[in-house]
Amino acid sequence: MHGLAVQAVLGYAQIDLFGKPPLVFGKYNDRELKEGEVRKLLKAFYSDGVQRFHDIHAIPILAKPEWYQSDSLTDNEKAMSELPILRWTEEGKREKGILAMGGRHRLNAVRHWRKNAQASWEKANKAYEDAKKRPDEVKEGELSKLGESLDDCEDELEGAGLWMVTIYDYGERCGLEGEE
Question: Which of 12, 23, 64, 101 is the most exposed place for a label (fewest CB within 10 A)?
């Protein structure tokens, strides 16, 4: 089975977990979503970093070669943040969903993390805007610190849904042709 899986790997890329077409779970991995597992992952995101581009955290997806542009993936699973962004063809964009063979808990943890990051940005933005309105009351350097905090929040939010995927051939190479 392992050899078949290795043969079926088409490449690696990054996708927006919340983009279109959406990821669909449950066909090849019917593991139930457990909020406790999501909370553990979320806690790890805060203690160890999100690590969205490490190959051991890649979400395995099934895709037919005609669903994506072939130059939008790499065979280098260690490319980290240099991974290309997977670009779907018109045929791929018409798919109702892309089958994910795992990663449901990661997706939900990222959803919570992104929501918290958005709330942090809103708080930082309000503090920055409020300080700009009262320049006479702001201590020297405070506006600059608030601006840096806002920039940090923006950096965190930028690409908050991007995650590494391993693309497996949803067809002849892994024996799933016609199983749709």
Answer: 101
